[in-house]
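Why does residue order matter? Because the sequence determines the fold. Keep that principle in mind as you read this record.
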Amino acid sequence: MKMYLKTIFFAFISVILMMVSITLATTVILNFRPLYYNHINDFVKNSSLNYEQIKENYDALIDYNSFWGSDKLEFPHLPSSANGITHFEEVKTIFLEFQLALIIGVIVLILLIPLYHGLYHSYEYLLAGGIATIFIPFSLAVLIYANFNKIFILFHQIAFNNDYWIFDYRTDPIIKYLPQEFFMLCAIGISVLVFLFGIIMLVLYHKQHRKTKHSLN
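Structure:
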């Protein structure tokens, strides 16, 4: 029975580690504005807006999707339709859920990891968490390589219960500055970060495992 409880305990911590890795990577990439800024000049060529105006529109969107953001989205240099605003409200809900999951996950780890060490003096949750976490970006990379457009559409069909995400550039010109290629770049960035977090877990596990073996000898 004790072994059974230990297995459940370390498996739960491993899942939380994986969840924190994914939500942290997603939060970091979506808030890493230079990733977008480096591509603004590509939009300026075929736009009536200059670099600073495009930047301000993007900043308004990212600020809106944070806990401290405004309750109302307004692009300083672009109009928006009612459906477009509704879609961004739904996107904000998803972003906030990710950020909330990250905060809760970190708190759970802070509480449970010391308890686990006190009971079992083991680091196997790092091994399981690292392996599980590394599996996620590999799977995502395969999907992106296979057909990102199909995955992009499928994600929106699952995440949203309407078609407001299908923008008309005439009523919601912001879509011209948020191309699918940029979201693919974000997905790649998230995958790389998640992979690195998984590697860090495995490195920490092997270091602690080696240290434990050395102390026993």
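The chain has seven helices and no strands.
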